[in-house]
Amino acid sequence: MTQEFDFSDIAPLDDSVFHSVMEKLVKEPGFLHAVKYAMPQEGIPSLIDELLKINNKYDFQHQVMFPFLEMLAKTTTSGISLGGIKHLNPSMNYTFITNHRDIVLDASFLNLAFLRRDIPTSEVAIGDNLLIFDWIKDLVRLNKSFIVKRNTGLREGLMAAKKLSAYIHYCLLEKHESVWIAQREGRAKDSSDHTQESLVKMLAIGGEGTFMQRLKEINLMPVAISYEYDPNDYLKAKEFLLRRRHPDFKKSQRDDLFSMETGLLQFKGKVHFQLTPRINTKLDQIGNFKDNNTAAKYVVKIIDQAIHRSYMIFRINYIAFDLLHNTDRFEAYYTPERKKEVIEYFNSQLDKVDVENITAEEREYMMQMMLTMYANPLKNKLRTILGGLE
Known about the structure:
- The protein is α/β, with parallel strands linked by helices.
- Helices cover about 55% and strands about 10% of the residues.
């Protein structure tokens, strides 16, 4: 199937053009403006010199992105941890499918965790809706990202899905590269993470054999991502309020850029990635379905439950649950002082919401949505552990 597609418009840029694209990139005003956020002005010329000495994606990730991400981790987190390494077989490649917390850093920090352990990084799926400028598209493709085309017509969308699926299968089976993809398009605003059936169906278009056989050949490995703090929590609360006021509200490109910047540069607390076993064994156990829709629903449950049961739960999650439900169910996990600090944190975040004429009732609504965001990972973990696969 891969032979019928030309992947050149969506695949990471080939190393043969790396230097010429980089030469163009370092002259882009937008790129230089973005770099100023991450480092002192006086350091930019030496960075450009270093970038122009690099000729391939491997060296770019190891010599530039690795130290940059380490700096970002040091300044914006309380540490990044990785669990479940025992589930990785060095002789295999995987499709890492994760919940989606941060627009930029979910895949980047996972790759940082791999770089620290000399584990090969994955190619990263990124939606073209985020590639607002040409220089951003060039940058991510120099960094082993491939493009997911969105907002197309029905016919174009079907062809794009076939091509994307074929590329992912090509990556694992012929390029011998692992792949990262989020379980859904866009982040779950309320942090209740659920895999889209359409994503599973897309992944099963490429490859050979039955629906389940095509999924098995790309070694789906669910990965649970847990952030202690979400820097965008107040922006999500703001969006909930604006949608409540105006049901047709849509974010602008400027909103998306600010969300990306906030998630990138603001404090996230502890960040944990938990690898879980690839789901091939479970796919073998359930066999084949005549109806692919039913098959996709079952695969979604397998992925969701693997992610939900593997969350790292922080004190803020326990406190948010108890505040949301007016209970003391989890008071053993925190002190009254810590509860007070968390309430102060929530209020300080809501103070940042720049919407005019917020009423007391609307403020309470945003607080409820903020508590829901932080309580939902705990709720889903409890539901999965206690409920089992239906």
